[in-house]
Specification:
Elements: H1 2-30, H2 37-61, H3 65-85, H4 91-96, H5 100-111, H6 138-147, H7 149-173, H8 176-179, H9 185-229, E1 235-237, E2 240-241, H10 242-268, H11 274-302, H12 306-324, H13 338-344
Antiparallel strand pairs: 1-2
Helix pairs in contact: 1-3, 2-9, 2-10, 6-7, 7-10, 7-11, 7-12, 9-10, 9-12, 11-12
């Protein structure tokens, strides 16, 4: 009975965490201008890392699953109160749902947070993209994939990025006892937090300088190189091997890709499909997350040491190839409807 209760609690908690985190992230990106999106994305990553000490302390101090769930539930409630009290709905969301009155209400609330002297009631919202001719439903979102093939094409290019990056990311985080035999579960999370903190600090200048597309290509190739070098069985002493050091480096490069795919997806997908894109991508990512620990923990012992590292390197190179077919969005405004995405794609060249 307790096992089933635990499964229900984990499922409900996971669903709530996904909706809260994804919804907040989308809202954050829709309310942030071009100039600051990279910085805000990096700051979001640092807040993610800040949760590691609380996670480690919760596991270390609680020996019963019931108290672990209670502790994390209280932390989640406290940390998410602002979502229900302070956050303002994005005007973009109201616009694609043809609710101009609610859009103006959101704009007025946002204007009140600034020193700008804006009379929102006098602002006329012009429907230049004929949004009013389109009914925002799930069925319409699916139809748009056929009407505007560019949406399907870019979605299929993002799919392997979400799957593989989550495979690498969670594979590293749940495999430190294999990578570093003397490591405990808690040390594994500490190592993960260190790698992600480094990645967050690097991601802002790197993505700002290279752009989303080049950053993804470069760091996927670097990840592939790290994976291939890790094949060498070199003992560095004290249970540390060459693969242990390279795994920490690999976690950093993968974490930068993890940060980039979130930012890039929010910019590639139009407002009408942004939630759809994140749901589809995160769903694939969860399957990748399930596969990751198996690749890191079980595939090597079942075959040879080199097989999992070669597989990871090949997948990284395939991700870099998928990124080549996607457009750079760092210098572009967010789009609202599929027609704008199709227009944005005109003149695109497959150059790195």
């Amino acid at each position: 009975k307790q096992w089933y209760q635990r499964r229900v609690a984990i499922t409900a908690g996971g669903f709530g965490d996904f909706v809260t985190f994804t919804g907040t992230y989308i809202l954050m990106m829709e309310l942030t201008g071009i100039k600051y999106r990279t910085s805000v994305n990096a700051f979001q990553g640092l807040t993610w890392v800040a949760g590691y000490p609380f996670l480690i302390a919760t596991g270390y101090l609680n020996y019963d699953w019931n108290y672990m769930f209670l502790t994390t539930a209280i932390l989640a409630l406290v940390c998410n109160l602002h979502v229900y009290v302070f956050l303002i709905e994005s005007p973009r969301f109201h616009l694609v749902n043809n609710d101009m009155k609610a859009a103006k209400k959101s704009l007025k609330a946002l204007a009140a947070l600034t020193t700008a002297d804006l009379d929102v009631d006098e602002i006329e919202i012009v429907d230049t993209e004929k949004v009013n001719d389109r009914k925002q439903t799930f069925i319409q979102q699916l139809k748009d994939l056929w009407t505007y093939p560019v949406l399907l094409k870019e979605g299929l290019c993002l799919a392997p990025l979400w799957f593989c990056i989550n495979m690498f990311y969670y594979g590293f985080n749940f495999a430190w006892d294999m990578i570093l035999p003397s490591a405990s579960l808690y040390l594994g999370f500490v190592m993960g937090g260190v790698g992600e903190a480094i990645a967050c600090c690097l991601s802002m200048p790197v993505i700002q300088f290279l752009g989303r597309r080049r950053a993804m290509i470069v760091f996927q190739c670097l990840s592939a190189l790290v994976f291939l070098i890790a094949i060498a069985d070199v003992d560095l002493g004290n249970d540390w091997g060459l693969d242990s050091v390279l795994s920490l480096i690999g976690l950093t490069t993968v974490s930068i890709c993890f940060s980039t795919v979130y930012l890039w997806t929010s910019e590639i997908a139009p407002t009408s499909h942004r939630g759809f894109a994140f749901t589809f991508g995160s769903g694939l990512g969860k399957f990748g997350g399930f596969a990751g620990p198996y690749v890191f923990n079980n595939l090597g012992p079942a075959t040879t040491r080199a097989v999992p590292w070669i597989l990871l390197a090949v997948l990284s190179l395939l991700c870099a190839l998928a990124a080549v077919f996607l457009i750079e969005t760092g210098d572009k405004e967010l789009t609202h409807v599929p027609a704008e995405v199709q227009e944005r794609r005109k003149g695109f060249r497959y150059r790195i």
